[in-house]
Amino acid sequence: MTSQTSSTPLQVCRDCGGGAPADAHFCPQCTKILVLSRHGDYFSFMGLARRLNLEAAELEQKFRALSRQFHPDYFYNASPAQRRASLERSSYLNDAYRTLRNPASRLEYLLKIEGLAPKTAQEASRQVPPALLEEVFALNEELDEIRDLRTGGAPEAEWKARLERARQPIEKKRAEHEAQLQELAARFDAVGAGEERRAILEALRDRFLERNYITNLLAGIERELNS
Q1: Can you tell me the distance from the alpha carbon of 225 to that of 218, in angstroms, rounded to the nearest whole number?
Q2: Domain that residue 202 falls in
Q3: Which pLDDT value is given to residue 126?
């Protein structure tokens, strides 16, 4: 648990009125479980630094330790407010663990709390490079032609071969993006605050949005192959 500083937002214990850091789970004065604060985030809630490369074993250990502390069974005879607080923290912990254990949702969440996640689908599409959008249009045209082949009675081997050829450059691009995301994630974890950190986050956002497009393209090809 992080130490309290003058810059750390405070929460007030509803049992004793004492102050506690925003990422504290129990009141330092009366030791009662605290009502969930509106401040903080999944990382600070679980006692983790804002990093993109997290050790699965550490994340699991923190989740299990906090699960035991918040479990509603321990608050069966507590006041209604204490029982409600344990339920809120248990639910929030489950959401945090589910989000942070997956690298893709972890990145998406980090972008959100850093103020860089697109707010709408339209905003997301505007941030995708035009060159990638051109590939989307080209692939869609190819898929239309392949559908025409199928409905026209072309042999299955012929249109499936075209689908496989259409998938290869998209698979290559996905591998390139995964490598770029891993490199940027390592750079983000290595730098402190400042302009460089912001630039890395913006690059991560762009790669993340592109990867979503690429994933959708491959899913479309897969649906055609399996239909």
Answers
A1: 11
A2: 121-226
A3: 60
